[in-house]
Amino acid sequence: MFKEKLELDIRGRVAFIYDTGEVVRYDNAIQATAKEIVSKALIGNVTGLIDTIELYNLGILICSRPVTVKSIVNATEVEFDALFDAASFNSHVDEARLKASALGYFSIVTGVDITKTSIQSILVSWTIQIV
Q1: What is the pLDDT of residue 7?
Q2: C-alpha to C-alpha distance for 127 and 118, rounded to whole angstroms
Q3: How many CA atoms lie within 13 A of 93 on its CB side?
Q4: Burial of residue 55, with CB atoms counted within 10 A of its CB: 0-12 exposed, 13-18 middle, 19 or more buried
Q5: What percentage of the chain exceeds 70 in pLDDT?
């Protein structure tokens, strides 16, 4: 099958950008479903495109938001952004997931150590690089 033969070196990083301008960055782990998501995108299949960023604490989903900005950064990088506004949640975050709702997770970052209060907004900016 095509996706098994697809040889890609995919890397990712996530930036949590507070409304104060503070930025906290993490590298992430690309999931096995990433190749299937890329394969389907290559043939123009719009079902299964990356569409959601989820935030977790202790394995419990705190909040999810649709990806609102998808952009090509350069020849090897794309970026997915989602805004978690002040009203979205008030909690600590220890994990984030980039998801294609129809197919599963593209990448996951664990070991996150951020806290958002009910008066803060955070922009989550997820960059994927294919080397």
Answers
A1: 64
A2: 26
A3: 27
A4: buried
A5: 94
